[in-house]
Each structure stands twice: as C-alpha cells, then as structure tokens.
Design a protein that fits this description.
Blueprint lengths: L1 H21 L16 E10 L4 E9 L11 E8 L18 H10 L4 H6 L5 E7 L18 E8 L2 H9 L13 H12 L7 E8 L5 E3 L5 E3 L6 H19 L5 E7 L5 H11 L4 E7 L2 H16 L4 E9 L3 E3 L8 E7 L5 E6 L4 E7 L5 E7 L9 E11 L1 H10 L3 E3 L1 E10 L2 E6 L5 E3 L5 E8 L10 E7 L8 E6 L5 E4 L10 E4 L5 E10 L2 E10 L3 E9 L2 E2 L9 E8 L8 E3 L2 E3 L3 E6 L4 E4 L6 E7 L1 H4 L2 E6 L2 E4 L4 E9 L3 E8 L9 E9 L2 E2 L2 E7 L2 E7 L3 E6 L4 E4 L7 E6 L1 H4 L3 E4 L6 E4 L4 E8 L3 H4 L4 H31 L1
Helix pairs in contact: 1-2, 1-8, 2-4, 5-6, 6-7
Amino acid sequence: MIIKDSIRFVIASIAMVLFVLFGCGARTVYAETSVPKPEMKKSITCTDKENDIYELSLSMQTTSEIINQTAPLDVIFVADLSGSMDEKLSQIGGARTTRLEALKNALAADGGLIENVLSNSNNRLSIISFAGGTKDTDNNHSDSPYNDAKTVLSWSNDITKAKKNANELAVPKNGDTGTNISAGLYEAEQVLKSARDEAKKVIVLLTDGEANMYYDDNGDTQYESNNPSESFVKEINESLKKEVNKLKAHKLDGFYSIAFAGKTAITSLEVIHAALGNDVANATFTAGNESDLLKCFEKITEITKTLMFQHVVITDILSDWVELVSDEVSDFSVVKKTYNSAGEVTNSKELTEGFTIKITTTENDKTQVQAVFNEDYVFDDCCTYILKFKVRISQDGYDEFADTGCDQLPSNAGATVSYTYDSHTQEIPFEEKPQVNSVTLEIPVKVEWDLLTDGKIPETSVTVELFQDEKEKSYRTESVGADESWQGTFTKLAKGHEYKKAKAEEIEGFTVTTELKEENGKKYFLVKYVQLPSLTISKTLIEEGKEVESGDSGEPFVMTVTLKDKEGKALTGEYGGQTFTNGQTTVSVSAGKSIKLAYLPRGTQYTVVETDSSSAGYDVAYENKEGKLEKTDQTVTVTNTKLPSLTISKTVAGDYGDKGREFAFTIKLTKDGSDVSGQFTMTKGEEDSEVTFDNGTATVTLKHDESVVIKDLPLGADYTVEETAESRSGYTVTYNGTNDKATGKLTKSATVAVVNTMGDISSTGGNSSHGSAVKLGVIGGLAVLVTLALVARKVRKDDL
C-alpha cells in the first residue's frame, strides 16, 4: 500500500543516512587520511580614498576527497508505542493502516532499516520501545520504577531475529499509552553502556507526539493531565535534557529524530537537539508523506556528501593601525565565487544565510572579525568563499604615520582559517600582510539657517570651533559669515587625528547643531541654526454677551498645557519658561491677557485645555486648541462665556386671582435639535436645590411673587416655558407681556415673567373653586342689599 511504502521509505532513508554517514554494509566507507588544506588568500583594496576606507578580503577555496572509513556501527532504534500509534493514518490510496503497522512493515521489509543496517556483519542493531503508564492515579506514576520503556532487541546482527522482534511491536493494552520520551532515552543510555568502543554510535528516535510524562529521580513516571501546566512542561524538558547529557557522555556520534505522522512532536525534539548542540552530529526530520521524506533525505545526502569540512571559521584580527568603519559605512559580507575548468569566474553571489558574522575583542584589546559557518553548511567543491568587510585608519595609525614618517602600515595582526575535517581540527594562518596608506585631511564647514516664515538672520557671522579627538579644548576656530556665503574651511589639520566634533556659538531663539556629513565622497561640518517657534495663550471672557476688559475679571483662569515632541513623546524639563513634567504644566491667564511660551522645539505637538475647576460655570471655546509648531508661531485663544441662567417669576393679578396657590410650569430645553437632560442647580428664594431635565423637560411650581433661577444652562440652548393647562385654567396668562408661551435661545441669561390675571368672574369662564366662591359672595351681597332696601321703604311708609 502507498502508506506502507511511505513509511518503508522513511526507514530506508534513515538507513541511507547511516550508510552515508558511517559506511554501513558493503558500501565504500570513510577512513583516516591526510587532512586537505584549502587554498587561502588575503588582500586589501582602498575603496574610498577621501575617507581612508579599505575593503579587506579573506578567501578560502575548498577541495574534496573521497576516502574510506572502517569503523563498525552500533545503532539503537527508539520507537514510540504510545496509544496514538494505533491511530489510522490518513488515507492516500488503498486500505487505511495504523501508524504502528506502517512502521513495522517498513522496519522488516526487504531493503528496510533492519536489512540495511545488519547487511554488514560488523554492525549491530538494538530496538527499544517506550510508552507511558499512569496506573497509580493517586500518585500519578506507574506501579514500579523505570518500566515505561524496554529493550525489544538487544545488540544483534541477526536479521531474522530483528525482523521477528520488530513484527511483535505492539501498543500496550494495560493502559500505558502515554508518551514518556525520557524513558526511551533512559533505556537507550542503558544499552549504550554495552556499545563497542571502536564502533560509531548512533541513535534514531521516532515519535508521533509531544512528551507528556517523565521519570523522576526514583524512576517513577510523573504525569499531570492532558493540558499540563507550564511548570510541568518545564519539568519534562529538564528531564529530556538530563537524559541527553547522559547519552553524550558515551561519546555518541549521531542522533537523528523523526516527528512521525505530523509535527506535534517538534517541541520536545527541539529541546533534545538543543541539548545535543554541536557536540553530536544531529538533525530533526518530519515524516508526513513521501514527498516530504524525499526532500528531507535529499538534504541529508547533500550535507553528508561534503561533511568533511565542518566548524569552518574565517578569522581576521585587526592591527592597531586600522578600525572598523561605523555601521552606516561598514559592509560585512561573505561572497561565494564559482569557477569553470579554465579557472574563470562563472558566478559570484553574496551569501545571505549559512553563516554568522561575529565581532569581538581579543585579550590583547584587538578587534577580531569572524565568519562562523553553520554546522550543516555545505561547501561546494572548488568554490572560493570570501569574507569581506571595510576598515579605516585608526587613531593609532595616524599617530604612527606622524611619528615615524612611514608611508604604509599593516592592516592585520593575524588571520586564520580553522576547520574540522574527519575529526581533525586545523588552524591555518594567512601568509599575506596587506598595508594601508597615509592621507591628508581638510574639512570644510557650512552654515545653514532654517528660519520661521517671517524670521530673519540675526548675525553677520558666527564662530565655529573644531575639536581634535575627545579633547575639551578647541583645536581650530573658524569665522563663517554672510560675505563668504556662510562657508569656510578648517585647514592644516594634523594628520592621523579624528575631527568628529565641532561647536558653533549659541544664538537666542535658535537651536544649533553641528554634524559631520559626507557629500560626493568628501566630509564636511554642517552647522544648522533652526529658529524656534513660540506658543501664545490668550484669554477672552464674555459675560452677559459682553467682553470683559482686562483687569475686571477677578481671579485668573488656569489652563493645562501639554507638549509632546514630533514622535509623540512627552516633553519633560524647562520649555518656554515653564517647567513641564511628563509633558504637562499649568499656566494662569487673566481675561484680556496672554502668556507666551517662547522658543519651543520644532515639531512640538501642543494641546491647551482649561481645568475643570477654572471652567466651572463657563462655556469654553478654543481657537487652535491643539496643533504642531513648525515654521510659524501659534496663538491659542481660549474664550470663556459665562453660562446663562433662566429666571421664571410668577405674579397673580386681578381681584379674583388666588395668590396662595401653586402654579406649575413646564420647561423644555434643546440644543442643536437634541433634548438637554441632566441636573442643574435651581435657586428658589434663599434655597438651592437640583432640578432634573428628563428627555429635555422639567417642571417647577411657583406662588404669587415667587421666582426660580436655573443656573449654568448650556450656552445656545433653546428654551420654552409654558404654564400647565391645569394651572392656567381660569386665568389669562402672559409671558413677558405676551399671550404666547415664552421661547428663546440662551446666548445669555434670560428672564420669563409669567402673569396670571383673573379680573372678573365672567371673563374667566370661571370654573375654579375660588371663582365659585367669589360668585356666591357677590350674589349674597346683592341679596342683602335688596332686603335692606325693601325694609327701609316699608319703614318710611309706616312713618307716613
């Protein structure tokens, strides 16, 4: 089947790796021979004469030799028999099979791993299986120590016996179905104790999952859960490392692992191979399908083909006369050149991987540059590998030229190529001693002015000082002015010294920077004066629609000023005469006044916000509230408009008005078409209380000659005041002298005078209790008058 063939290919490929590495079976194998020496050459080329920059090249040309090796081979195959090995593989074609069945077929097949290893009678094979048991659930370990792995096949070169034992591999049926990789390694170490001293010792580990168990110091299996904690995973990894270190003590020659039927085992295998390091030849492979395997083993074959050149390091130790160029100029690279049979270069390319550049300092305080090639890097036959990097003459070099008058000095104190070849370590020195030449230096200086939009150059010339090396005292002084188009030159400078620092005089309102630059291959100092912008904060106060003049506003207003640099980082320190902490400070400004924060850095981002306590009772509007200071001064105008109040007064007029009753009013507030809701302070007589607007509406009650003031209402809000229908029944109601309900916009405080008039009974339509009483009183009074009149007439008649 395709699945079986794929697994058989895994094992066959492992055998192929073992053949290539150690020469198993009847194939030609490696043997001791003389150590080849690569061709080496070192040179130096001046690449930038004006800046004294040189490129150093250290090259090595590899050679290849096929030689024999006669050591026998002891191989330990460590197989995972956890429960997941009984799972079916994904169907590619034909019937599906389990992972374990596929593995056994590949192990015992004709031309499989067993036959390939044991076809040479000098070679031996041992097979170990491992799983993981947790039968003792109370203590989280199995019943007896060190029993999660066993040796299925002890050292043997009997092919028939090995195949029989391989075919008998089975997942434990007693519940021991975990993955205790440490157990497999522990058992392998026990078997390694009986390996032959003269044999090449190799371990091949196959697992299909992460380790989820480990042996403690007593050999008990430790298990936490299907989702172990970080601390438990750490314990597993430490156990793996411990077992690897024990294996390395047996002078292991190779360790190769396979993450089988997926990549879930990669993390555990990474821990193992990290512990192996460079001490043991090792590699990790994943086996999911035949195509992946082919790619893996093609790489293995490629690596092993030229495995004789390993641990290659090209080293160059600089002399005191040169130093590395700064990171902006220096160029470290490794170039590979390929040649044809005529010795002509057919291809040249810069390598981007397979090596590491290391820059260190030796015990003698000299700079060391190394190209360290990776352990698995493949050196092609008869190709040249060139380490290239740039240097310039050092201070000691210039001093030596000045003191001795010599024209050249060596660039290197030593250079070597070191490598390992078939367990032999070699270090070969380069014979060439490249030289660097002396130079003369002259440095121009330029002055630039970066002014504000309306700015002017305040001076006719400026003085610039040049410093030699790190000395505090200036070495040269140059006056640069408008007459020379703001250009000058530092001349007659001592050779061999560095001139990296210059300082120009300070000018108020400007920042000044001096920078050593390069243009068209020539260095020069650029002095740049940048005029600084200012931020002015102005305060305007409006009360009852009128601007308050300066000096009439009482206490000053407090504002928080926030400053950030052009990258958005808070500024801390003295800026504009104010102290900023974490980007903030507060300033006080009275109405009609302003404050100026002078000479702030270019690109400063600012925000001005009045404090809550200062803005209480005001509507605060900003002009240029926030922005960035570039090439113009900025002014922030903060306008405080006193929040308006709404006063409602009640008067009851007319002979029949009830001046002792409560009259109810509905107040409606909106702003910009939306209801105003919330609580506002209300004063009624001498008492303050809160009035609540819900969905823009509130209700208040007033008696005759009472009033209510609702304070600090939103500026520009629209209001409507209307007495409720029940309250105004029987009365003629006017609002500020009109019969319509009161409306308006609160651009300033407003007053609504509400007058309820009841002049006579008929005019009111009279249905109030007070109106009825009045009517009855009038009727009664009339009846009394009529009665009195009739009595008086009768008396007069009687008298007559």
